[in-house]
Amino acid sequence: MRYEGKIFRPPSEADAYILQATIGCSWNRCTYCDMYSDKVYRERETDACLEDLRTAAAIAKNRVDKVFVGDGDALGMPTDRWLAILKAADAGFPRLRRVSCYATAINILKKTPDELAALRAAGLSRIYIGPESGDDATLKRIAKGSTFAEHVAAAERARGGDRAQRDRAARDRRHRTRPRARVRDRPPDHGDGPGVRVGADDHGGAEDAAAHAAHPRPLRAAVRGRDAP
């Protein structure tokens, strides 16, 4: 396991294994932040990252349940590199329950919804975004690089789509699970003729399970001022 310079992570990742997959921050212009001022941004070679994961697994295989991928905004790495890291982390740590990273709105919005879905399915379950302010004039003054609306759009995309898409999905779920009247044959000892039974569709549970398997839970976008650069 190799590290370069000062290492930062969110408070909620205090007990996580930190994999330094990138060095520094690809934006690194925010006026209030000097976390990565001594580093020139670059991405480490994938093989070096995988070797670090293997070393960590050899030392603490059964003690690691969280992995934080640094440095400043590791989400900017190409998706194929991310997928290789996530696959190795999952294979190396049997108790792994969370992989997380810092992210900028810029880099989230560069990822397509399909790319983010692939990362979520592979194990990336939390990203930390720091909008710092809801005032665009302030964001411009501190050189944040994105407007507040862009931060909101980034969080929506990370969670699995825009608000309208999620509202439609919620309506579809309500419609699918709504009780319906069904006509069934009444047992012979209840007399002739059909009986009416009111209940949920028999296959609703199976449909819901299949839908969940096809669409895993979205990335959790943690929008916390102190947790993100």
TrEMBL record:
Superkingdom of the source species: Bacteria
SUPFAM superfamilies documented for this protein: Radical SAM enzymes (SSF102114)
Domain Elp3/MiaA/NifB-like radical SAM core: 15-216
Record GO terms (molecular function): catalytic activity; iron-sulfur cluster binding; metal ion binding
Compositional bias of kind Basic residues: 171-181
Keywords: Iron, Iron-sulfur, Metal-binding, S-adenosyl-L-methionine
Basic and acidic residues: compositionally biased ranges: 155-170, 182-192, 199-210
Cofactor: [4Fe-4S] cluster
Annotated region (Disordered), positions in chain: 155-229
InterPro entries: Aldolase_TIM (IPR013785), BchE-like (IPR051198), Elp3/MiaA/NifB-like_rSAM (IPR006638), rSAM (IPR007197), rSAM_sf (IPR058240)
Keyword rRNA-binding: no
Name of the featured protein: Radical SAM protein
Source organism of the structure: Nannocystis pusilla
